[in-house]
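Margin note: ligand = iron/sulfur cluster.
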Amino acid sequence: MKDRYGRVIDYLRVSVTDRCNFRCVYCMPPDGIPSVSHDDILRYEELLRLIRIFAELGIKHIRLTGGEPTVRRGLVKLVREIHDMPGIETISMTTNGLLLPTLLDDLKDAGLTSVNISLDTLKEERFDEITRTTGNLPKVLDAIRLAEEEGLNTKVNCVAMRGVNDDELADIAAMAKDRNIGVRFIEYMPIGKHDYEQAIYKDELLDLLRSSLGELAEDPSPRGNGPAVYYKPEGFQGSVGVISAMSHAFCDTCNRVRMTPEGFLKLCLQYDVGVNLRSPVRQDLTDDQIKQLILASLDRKPEHHTFLDYAEKQDIDTRDMSLIGG
Ligand code: SAM
Ligand code: SF4
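Resulting structure:
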């Protein structure tokens, strides 16, 4: 699949649920958000059918996300079925890690290739404050260790926040010192209504890291299909990445589209532009008809996001990140 700017789209992020067992401060309000009604969520067979259609259109890489993907029932079976689809090369998942340990063996066996685990602090009290839960940091640290031991391509995602975790970014990066994992810092994005004034952009982030870790040589070895740029501090086995969606937008090489739990094909993280695929599936349109809808919608994929001056724009998606999947 190609969009009108000639970008090849081969990566689909599938948000399998809007539900989550955390309430992260940058992702949703303290009381959470009203759940999408069960009937509005794509059923298992509908989800599989759409993913198969995408695979036939040229999608090679699937990332399962949420909400928290591990709270969706049937996740292992879903991974197995996606793995068996012709054309699919990698299946990855972004998770908060809490429920991962009990699922890891089965997910690996079903064909999961890599896992990104979100972790914004190594301090217990701070972890509780950020996730608005109690006592879960050791479980998430365990999940990271176990995923790595299981042989999955394991990455840690950390949202860098001024005044929240900027005093420990080098410590978090140091998780990659003696282990072959990628620790990636994500720029806080203005999705939903949160304190994104806390964002720390790439150049400042790298300066902060250099002041503790020394020179950062760029690490060209690939760790995924995403836009992270990786660096290898001296003496590190793993690498440290930065995902600078805000300050150094990577829209010209964007290879992705997203599907929400309700089956909305979302063409850009920032905009509410796309096509509803749930109705066509429920109205029994043929695969070919659904493919035409998808291909036609690609013409409306925005050329780039405008997060930095978003206040002036139209068609902005006002939903929280947990409804979009990151
Ligand atoms: N629940 C899973 C998790 O936390 O990894 C998957 C869904 S979560 C929405 C996906 C990713 O988006 C996480 O790594 C999270 O840190 C990130 N995220 C959420 N809100 C964000 C924001 N406002 N800016 C940047 N990243 C954000
Ligand atoms: Fe849940 Fe992930 Fe959002 Fe945190 S970032 S509230 S774990 S969906």
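The chain has one domain: 11-323.
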